[in-house]
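README: folding subset

This subset contains proteins for which both the sequence and a predicted structure token string are available. Records are stored as plain text. Below is the entry for Nuclear pore protein (814 residues), shown exactly as it appears on disk.
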Amino acid sequence: MFLSTPSTSFNLTSIEKKLAAIEATSASSYTVKPTTRLPKVNNEAELDAYLKSERANFNDEQFEYLTQQSLTQADTDYWEEIFSDSLKRRRNLINCLLADDLRPRSISSYDSTSTIKTSQILNDSTTSPTGYDFKSDWTSQQNQSSIFADLSLVEQQYAQTLIKYNQTRTSSGTGDGDQLILQYKHIAKTYETQVVYDMWHAAEWMSGVLDYDYRKSDLFHAQRAIVLCARDYLERSFRQALEITYNDIDFYGCLLSFITSNEKISRLQSVDDRLVDGVSAWPLIFYALRAGDINLAFNIIHKANLPHVQALLETYLSKEQTTTTTTTNKSSNIRNIEYSLVGNPYKRAVICILDRTNLVDAHEDVLLCIEDFLWIKLAQIQTINETAFHDRTNVQLTIPRLQRWILRDLGEEYFKAYEQPFRYARILLLCGAFESACEFLFKISLTKVHSIHLSIYFNEKYLLGLTSSIDECMIMIAGNSQQNKTNTALNLPKLIETYLKEKFIHNQNRYWELINYAYALINIEHSEAENEFRRLLIDLTTNLDDIHIVYGKWIIVIDNDGGEENRILKLERGLLHELFSHLDDSDIDDVLIGLATTIEEHHRSRLLVASALFELAHDYSSCIRLASEYIAQLILDRLLISSSTLSPFPFIYELAQRLQILSKIKHDDNQQNYFLLLDIYAFVDYYLRVEQHERAFLVLRQLKLFPYGKDYNDDEQARQLFASNKWLQQLFPHLCLAALRTHLLVIQHGTSSNLTEEEKHQYEFYRHTASIDLTHLAEFAHMQSQSFTRTQLRSIDRLCEQANQYYDQDMSFH
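--- output ---
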């Protein structure tokens, strides 16, 4: 056993190394006689003599220790293997869930002798992108594809699909999502993997619950719709796969071929089984039910002479109430060797399905794919007898309990959901957990785009439960075990808003996509903004420089009519006008006014956005009012906060230019007040700059804002302006103090060289009366003392005293 290569001599060095290794691993209490190097052994006799000598000198205690240690290790390994095997058997269902794609597997997974290649099915060019061929739904594990790595192209395709759908919906006024899902499936078929396409097909199929009188508020009808729709999907796919694979005269022939060619099914046959056409009746009954062929199941039961099973099936399909006593008696009738739950696993599965018993039994022995598990559990759910459904004395499986089992008890890690997200989402869809499927896909960056459009589609079909506020968490699940009820609500506005902020916000090239995604929420109400569409527009279009892209803008155009240049205003329409192209201009103006009003009431920090929207809607009075309020607040901040460097947005001056053009058509006092506020800001801006008090003085005097004589009648307009709103009322005393300080600086300093010659003449003209004007201004301020604090009035008095001192010094000098 120590020979490394065929040879007539032996390598004693190798033997010596192995013995030394044994010595190193032994306990320190044991000693081994060191091996002495012998001359080269030349024949077998010398080797035998050497080995006998070594055995005679070997330590018996150490040998016993090593033997016991080996036996202990072997025993440990044996029980670990037994425990591992037991654990695997107990979790056979979990292993089944993890083993395969959640699409129905290839029939080769059922038939070990089949030579059908799933890749040929996946690459079948005859499959319609808008239809669905069930044979492509049966794929084996080896053909599972990884998630599409680059989603940028897919995102664009999804966005374009939504834009086209919105155009159709706005033009016709209706949209039920049917055209939307067809395009989504086409995108998945063209740009994505097969598993994505299968998820979309399952989503389309499960939206068919609406054809089964689906009512979310009615627990029984909602459960009935989900179960019937999901079972139809699973049964149809199974039947079509058998027919395509075996291509027999009838389905019964396909079923026989399938069972006889599958070694796993054949191994489960019991000696006590009734035979039909040479095959155990139990797998025939099971797979007949699995294919949804009730008549075939009855025929097989009749051929096998199983009256008790026939009674079970009739009761299973009956609408009559089944009481607890009846169930007990019925169960006792089958507690014999022929109909008990022991023996053939297919017999146990059939009886548990028809009797709706052993609800926690996974029936792992008969599972060939996850679809079998789902179908068994769905088949155990009550869909016919509403009275039995509401009977709380019966322990029964329901859709809410099945959803909780998958979502909470088994959970994402058991399904390896993050490795196969579309597979896990497909399970949730088949169980009617639409909200949970959308929320799960959104947690993975590469599948967010699918989550968004899946949720939009289900919302269009009115199949989503929605939260009442965007401030709530992404998904809310509230259950009532006594009423067997689970309420699941998805925060769809938050879902879409998060996606838009990641992909499109502040990207001018993506505003068209942004408002189309926002428009998907047009039917979801919002307490402050009327609907979620308006709220998203308000929240996501905050950049004043870019709002013209969404809402449009006024531009000044030169009109050479009759050789005379006239400036006129022209409206450049925005993306919102394109979205609402089916509406009249007056209706779009109403939309803009609604947005502006909401911003004014709930988003005071965005007054200019509201002002711009009012202007676009031809509501100039509200536009000027908000712009004036913004300017007044800006002036006040500049006067009160020394470190403030705020300056008006360009919109303020652009609006003034447009108002000047409008003033030629219609004179408005609000326009004049707005121009006056801009001039006041110019004064304050010069006043706060270093070495600019001369220009501030010139602007102040040219404004004629304050009375500098005894006749105050000409200044009534200025006083009305200051009393027009709260911002100007707060501004008035601070502006008076700024004017007084400006006059004092003029009195104290000479003429600056920064002024032009014309400005110097004006400055000197006003400077000669600066002391008297300061006194008149102080008197005017005291007449409005109710607007000033005591500290401000004392400041005015001190400014007057300083001015008088300079005036007295100046007079004594002359």
